[in-house]
Every structure is written in structure tokens, then in C-alpha cells.
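Hey, I was hoping to borrow your eyes for a little while. No rush at all, and the record is pasted right below:
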Amino acid sequence: MTHNAHLVDRGSSVAGPRVSEYTISSVCLRGYDFAQALEVAKRLGFDSLDLVGLRGLCEHVPVNGSTADLRAAAEVFRRSGLRGASVNADPGSFDGFDDAEDVRRRIDGLLGFLGEAELPLLVLPCGEKTAAPPADPQISRMADALNGVAASARAAGVRLAVEAPYFGRPIHSLERAEQLLAALDPAIELAYDVSHVEAADESVVAGWDRFADRIGIVHLRDAASGDVRRVIGAGRVDFAAFLHQVRASDFSGDVVLELETQNSPYASKEDEVMAAALYLGAIEQKEREIVR
């Protein structure tokens, strides 16, 4: 699936972290207000941003805000000069835990925000967070609602993606992600987060191969069994094998550093972000040398 092409120039050399090869999630900078986060992202060398509206965690996009709040945030973003890759938001779930009309109202506000900010992609989760995967994940119920959202997104000129698998939510496995995708409008894309796949003890490469034609955006973070909050390089994700598959395909969507981690050894989130870019850049540089 091809969208915003900004992948690696395989003929160039690397002297340090090439952060512009990646998109930064604003959740990495949730300690700053929105305007400050945008300035920090630019100072670190990023030219594109995944804007986050996750209730109670990072509300750079005011998912519960008024129309005026959303318009003000859109204006702040437009003035930044950054390219907007996506909005990653949690407006609530469609599997019975939230009032569906309230969820749709928030989504309609988000679609208005994406239009105001000239952003191409809305990423939504699938179902409410749970301590254990439910026996009945309510796939038909969620799919019917998401297909309705897809129609509204299409009318607004916005693409829609669902984040699946998602460890700790009903669509927690590759199998359930496949079941969900089969019930969704084919235009709905997949946001593929390697940490959620690894945390469920499944193969990030096998998942890529299985869903590559539906993947519209990639999220990178490290993980181990049952733990999606690892610093990149401190978990089990085989980034070399995964990035090889990504770069060998025709994928030209955004690859996002979504570093919402725990027990980070770094003095600041900025240090962690740059260390992740350096770690991944070294992997990619080695791949380039092999290709040559």
C-alpha cells in the first residue's frame, strides 16, 4: 500500500541518526503542551508527526474538546510547518463499553480536526482495554460501526485505519485481526504496531507478510511477552528482520516511533528518541551495505 513516500534512500550513507526517515508520535513528547511538542519534534530533526489524542494519556489532539478547541489545535499544527502523518486517537470503543453515539460524536469532531489541519489518516483502536481477551470480541458489532465511520471519513477526504492486533484489547492476536479485517470495508487500513504483536508472542514478520496489503502505517516500539512498553533495543522485536521485510516491499507509508515506554534508562525522552533512531539507523545502514 503506497501513500506518502519518504522511505530510505538506499544509495546514501549515514553519519548519525537520520530521524527524518521516521515519523515521531507526539506521545513521545506528552510532557510538553502541543505547541512545545511541535517545536521539540522539529529541533530533534523530524519533519513529520503522528498527532495523538489518547484520553487520559496524551491529549495533544483534544479528543473530548469542543469544536473551538479542535480548531485552535489545528491552527497550532498548521503553523508548525510539520507534515502531519496521522491522528492516533481513542474516542471510545464500539464493543459495548461506551455509548456509541458519544463515540461517533467524538469521531465526527476528529474528522473535522483532520480536515482543518489537512491530515490524511485517522487511526482508531478496536474495542475497550481488557485484563484478558473476551471470548466474544464483538467483531460484527465493531465492524458495523467502523464501516459507518469509514463512510464518513471517505466523505471528508480522510483515510481510516484500525490498530490491530492490539495487546490488551479484544483484537489481541493475528487471527482476530484477520477476522476483523474480513468484516471491514476493504478501504479501511491497518495500523501495525510491532510491540503489540511481539507482546502476544507472535511473529512481527509473519504478521507483516499476512497483512502487508492492508497496512497503511507502522508503529515501532520494543516489547517482550506480555509487555508492550520496552525501550527499543531492550525487548525481543527483531527489527532487522522486520525492517528488511518493510523496505523490500512496496510500502511507502509512515514508520512511526511511538515510544510510550517504562523503565527507560535515558535522562530524557528526547535522549530515548534519538537513541532509538540511532539503533534503527544502524540496522538500516547494515541492510544498505548488504544490498550494495
In short: Residues 91 and 191 are 16 Å apart (CA to CA). The chain is about 40% helix and 15% strand. The two ends are 25 Å apart (CA to CA). The longest strand covers residues 83-90.
